[in-house]
Design a protein that fits this description.
Elements lengths: L8 H10 L13 H4 L1 E4 L1 H11 L1 H16 L11 E4 L4 E8 L3 E9 L13 E7 L5 E6 L1 H19 L6 E5 L5 H12 L3 E5 L3 H11 L6 E4 L3 H5 L4 E4 L6 E5 L9 E4 L8 E3 L1 H5 L2 E4 L2 H7 L12 E2 H5 L13 E4 L4 H18 L3 E3 L11 H6 L8
Parallel strand pairs: 1-6, 7-8, 7-10, 8-9, 10-12, 11-13, 12-16, 14-15, 14-16
Antiparallel strand pairs: 1-17, 2-3, 3-4, 4-5, 5-6
Helix pairs in contact: 4-5, 4-6, 4-12, 5-6, 5-12
The structure holds nicotinamide-adenine-dinucleotide.
Nicotinamide-adenine-dinucleotide binds next to α5 and β11.
Length: about 375
């Protein structure tokens, strides 16, 4: 099929008007707007972030996330579908409400850097429930890093002590700058303690953030040094094993732990004793029990889904001394919110290209005729 790729939607519509297509005419059974899919490539997402600014984009992501988490009951939810292998996992993450459907394809391969590839790679689709038409096909590798950081910040606003200023980041890989900047801009974190088993990763994170006004960076020689005295601890390491990044002796009263890297069966970061001594918030319990750090705990171990805290149906932090844990695994709703925002911004900013993922047919039953036309548009 010959792909129709046009610089932007306005150019596309003028091309069709120039070639005789009129809105409302019977010549095509569907106007091109509904038949075409917007495609956002990596460079479109980078341009979009440049235009909006990363802090503002993270803020908008949080407001879309809160809007969607605030409509929890409206969603048809399911744990993600995973295909595990020795080196990693490939997952599909679907979700829908009454008007929009989305899915994300995402992998997690901690040794990928040896092959010159990121640990996490993703793309996703937003579709119209009424017709099934794909509205948006987007890169989601960058977008996943942004939505994960925005989700962490959204949850930390309800769980961390409001006067939190110092955060430790254990694991200084691809996600780490996004986590750091979300907590700096949205929660007022002003000092970051950095630790990674790979000193080059810490050096890169330092290089990227050193010019950020109001942010002090402190590279540390061990997890214990990084965590001592921190208000918030973000663990965002990658290893396909039951790692123990945080042990109970490192946890201080009142800490909030943002556990991001334990997100797969057999892949955890927190010692069970850390969870046992904390109030634990999860995204979607059926998925988190299998994939989160709480996979190590008995089935009756209490966890609270975040939407209940947001709705005021359950408390967030209950005391200044309480230790809180966000056992983040990444839920499909967060990608739904991200895709919704990207779709809205692509239209507002005129970014992206239009693809004919669906055959553009005058007679929708004449699919075979599409082959005879060699992919050309069918006239009525
Ligand atoms: N919860 C979510 O929604 C979500 C979203 C995206 C990624 N993730 C997970 O976050 C993790 C990090 O992703 P990434 O893209 O930054 O991966 P990455 O491979 O780019 O970075 C991981 C970093 O962790 C470091 N590391 C590994 N073991 C360590 C240890 N014991 N102590 C300190 N540092 C250690 C590595 O050296 C590396 O620099 C992955 O496990 C990924 O699956 C979770």
């Amino acid at each position: 099929m010959m792909a129709v790729i046009v610089a932007n939607k306005h150019a596309f519509l003028s091309m069709f008007c120039a070639s005789g297509w009129q809105a409302g005419s019977e010549e095509w059974l569907q106007p091109p707007e509904t038949a075409m899919t917007t495609f956002l490539a990596t460079q479109d997402i980078a341009r979009l972030v440049q235009r909006v600014g990363l802090p503002e984009l993270l803020r908008r992501l949080v407001s879309y996330l809160e809007a969607d988490y605030g409509r929890w009951a409206a969603f048809d939810k399911t744990p993600r579908v995973a295909a595990h292998s020795a080196e990693g996992v490939i997952e599909l993450m679907p979700i829908a409400d009454a008007t929009l459907y989305s899915f994300k394809y995402v992998n997690g391969h901690p040794k990928n850097h040896r092959a010159g590839l990121p640990t996490v790679m993703a793309f996703g689709v937003l579709a119209d429930v009424a017709t099934g038409a794909p509205l948006l096909l987007s890169e989601l590798t960058l977008a996943t890093a942004m939505r994960t950081a925005a989700t962490s910040a959204m949850v930390a606003r309800r769980l961390a002590r409001p006067d939190s200023r110092v955060m430790a980041i254990i694991g200084n890989g691809a996600q780490s700058e996004f986590q750091a900047l979300a907590f700096h801009h949205l929660l007022g974190i002003s000092e970051l303690r950095l630790f990674d088993i790979d000193p080059a990763a810490t050096a890169r994170l330092q290089r990227h953030l050193q010019a950020t006004p109001g942010l002090t960076l402190v590279p540390c020689g061990s997890i214990a040094d990084a965590v001592r005295g921190a208000d918030i601890v973000t663990t965002v390491t990658a290893d396909k094993t039951n790692a123990t990044i945080l042990t109970p002796d490192l946890v201080e009263p009142g800490m909030h732990i943002n556990g991001v890297g334990g997100d797969c069966p057999g892949k955890t970061e927190l010692h069970p004793g850390v969870l046992a001594g904390a109030r634990v918030i999860v995204e979607y319990e059926p998925q988190s029990r299998a994939e989160g750090d709480v996979q190590q705990m008995p089935a009756e171990f209490p966890v609270t889904e975040f939407w209940r805290v947001l709705a005021g149906a359950a408390p967030g932090r209950e005391s200044r001394e309480q230790v809180t844990v966000f056992d983040s695994v990444g839920f499909a709703l967060e990608d739904f919110s991200a895709l919704r925002l990207l779709h809205d911004l692509s239209r507002q900013l005129g970014l992206g290209t239009l693809l004919d993922l669906v055959p553009p047919m005058a007679d929708p039953k004449n699919l075979y005729g599409q082959l005879q036309l060699g992919g050309q548009r069918q006239a009525a």
